[in-house]
């Protein structure tokens, strides 16, 4: 579970949970042990707390390197999914029981890779947002509901390390130690606030979550693309990014550890043609304040794979102009709201009116505005309104875009009531 550690200097205001009540379980690496654990979980009762640890920033992709589970009557289990890549016995053991996760969208894709898919779930982070908690990290939520806290100093470690150090395993086991108890109190809180049905609909939608949509051209997300000067430099970004991705995949390492984005951008703009010029670019990038702390790694990547970088740049030099990628890619997303007043005043008027009322509702209910309706969904419905613009058609369009029923019921009347002309201003 990824969570930023507390960097404050003050002692925590709550007692720190330092060890699981039953001790830290051994990490399961044997099929027979997995089967025994699955039998214990099947014999347990109530929801199952589930968590996974990845090696983001260290390894290529987002696979799980540790899976943690806990169920009443069964205890806690730590499973090595590298040694046991098929956790379908545990999936069968859990059956229809509810999973309890914190920030489910982080863990569901990597759990699916090892054969685990929830039939029902409760997300304590999402539930905490709907309940109006000011901080929704796991430690903060535990503090709020249980009056204890967790130390998070191992949240960003390399979980692909083997063997895993004992303090890390303690941290991992604690992540599921009290999760079901938090779930029970949070559920009661949501019910008391009249928001439980909202949460249940959101949780049900998460059972179908498979991960963020795949981008057609992920290289366009390279940090610093705004500094690229022309279309041929854009092509160099593409070729360097794809080269880096192949190297990172082969090494099973995070792409940024092979070569940071900042150096890719510098190479794309300056197009070095020799090893000496390549190193000069690296030295220039290292001198920037942003890259100085990572300069040693960046320079090593330039040197170790200098032939690959130079070949990528040379390949782009040989491309005819008609083969260069366009500077921008058209998509079906509405334009930025700041452009609406000039391009579509009616849509701009509706958007401003609806957002104002949703903001008021957000503040009254202590729910983040983006949890009431995603900004993209609202913009799409208003920029290209369905025809006819009537209740049932609007509802169908919102549902098609992924809005839950409670969101549809909230937003549809506002869309119908919204004026289509800009508000008059005093001269």
Q: In a few lines, what is going on in this structure?
A:
The chain has helices at residues 31-42, 88-94, 104-113, 124-131, 138-146, 166-177, 179-192, 196-206, 231-251, 255-258, 261-270, 275-287, 295-304, 306-317, 340-343, 345-365, 369-372, 375-383, 391-400, 405-417; strands spanning 16-17, 27-28, 45-53, 66-72, 75-79, 98-101, 120-123, 149-150. It is α/β, with parallel strands linked by helices and 427 residues long. The strands form two sheets. It has a six-stranded mixed β-sheet with strand order 2-5-4-3-6-7, with helices on both faces.
State the main characteristics.
427 residues; 6-stranded mixed beta sheet; flat; alpha/beta; DNA polymerase, domain 1; 8% strand; Nucleotidyltransferase, domain 5
Describe it.
The chain has 20 helices and 8 strands. With 427 residues, it is α/β, with parallel strands linked by helices. The protein has 3 domains: 16-206, Ribonuclease H-like superfamily/Ribonuclease H (Nucleotidyltransferase, domain 5, 2-Layer Sandwich); 218-323, DNA polymerase, domain 1 (Orthogonal Bundle), CATH 1.10.150; 337-417, HRDC domain (DNA polymerase, domain 1).
Secondary-structure topology with pairs:
Layout: E1 16-17, E2 27-28, H1 31-42, E3 45-53, E4 66-72, E5 75-79, H2 88-94, E6 98-101, H3 104-113, E7 120-123, H4 124-131, H5 138-146, E8 149-150, H6 166-177, H7 179-192, H8 196-206, H9 231-251, H10 255-258, H11 261-270, H12 275-287, H13 295-304, H14 306-317, H15 340-343, H16 345-365, H17 369-372, H18 375-383, H19 391-400, H20 405-417
Parallel strand pairs: 1-8, 2-5, 3-6, 6-7
Antiparallel strand pairs: 3-4, 4-5
Helix pairs in contact: 1-2, 4-7, 5-7, 9-11, 9-14, 11-12, 12-13, 16-18, 19-20
Domain HRDC: 230-312
Pfam family, one: HRDC
InterPro entries: 3'-5'_exonuclease_dom, Exo_C, HRDC-like_sf, HRDC_dom, HRDC_dom_sf, RNase_D-like, RNaseH-like_sf, RNaseH_sf
């Amino acid at each position: 579970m990824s969570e930023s550690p507390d960097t404050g200097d003050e002692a925590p205001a709550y007692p720190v949970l330092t060890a699981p009540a039953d001790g830290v379980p051994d990490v399961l690496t044997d099929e027979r042990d997995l089967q025994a654990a699955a039998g214990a979980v099947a014999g347990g009762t109530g929801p199952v707390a589930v968590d996974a640890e990845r090696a983001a920033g260290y390894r290529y992709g987002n696979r799980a390197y540790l899976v943690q589970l806990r169920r009443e009557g069964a205890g806690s289990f730590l499973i090595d999914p590298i040694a046991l890549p098929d956790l379908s016995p545990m999936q069968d053991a859990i059956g229809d029981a509810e999973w309890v996760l914190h920030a489910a969208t982080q863990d569901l894709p990597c759990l699916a890779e090892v054969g685990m898919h929830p039939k029902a779930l409760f997300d304590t982070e999402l539930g905490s947002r709907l309940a109006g908690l000011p901080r929704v990290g796991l430690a903060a939520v535990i503090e709020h509901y249980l009056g204890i806290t967790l130390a998070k100093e191992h949240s960003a470690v390399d979980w692909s390390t083997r063997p895993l150090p004992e303090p890390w395993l303690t941290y991992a086991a604690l992540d599921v130690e009290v999760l079901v108890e938090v779930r029970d109190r949070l559920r009661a809180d949501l019910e008391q606030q009249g928001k439980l049905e909202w949460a249940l609909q959101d949780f049900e939608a998460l059972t179908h979550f498979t991960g963020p949509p795949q981008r057609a051209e992920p290289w366009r997300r390279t940090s610093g693309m705004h500094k690229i000067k022309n279309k041929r430099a854009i092509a160099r970004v593409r070729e360097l990014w794809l080269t880096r991705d192949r190297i990172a995949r082969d090494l099973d390492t995070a792409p940024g550890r092979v070569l940071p984005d900042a150096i890719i951008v510098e190479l794309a703009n300056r197009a070095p043609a020799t090893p000496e010029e390549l190193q000069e670019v690296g030295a220039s990038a290292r001198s920037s304040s942003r890259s100085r702390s990572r300069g040693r790694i960046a320079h090593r990547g330039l040197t170790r794979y200098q032939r690959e970088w130079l070949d990528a740049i040379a390949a782009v030099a040989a491309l005819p102009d008609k083969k260069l990628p366009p500077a921008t890619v058209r998509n079906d997303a509405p334009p930025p709201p700041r452009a609406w007043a000039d391009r579509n005043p009616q849509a701009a008027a509706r958007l401003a009116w609806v957002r104002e009322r949703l903001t008021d509702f957000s503040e009254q209910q202590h729910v983040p505005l983006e949890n009431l309706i995603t900004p993209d969904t609202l913009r799409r419905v208003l920029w290209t309104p369905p025809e006819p613009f009537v209740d049932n058609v609007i509802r169908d369009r919102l549902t098609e875009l992924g809005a839950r029923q409670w969101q549809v019921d909230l937003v549809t009347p506002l869309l119908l009531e919204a004026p289509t002309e800009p508000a008059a201003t005093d001269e």
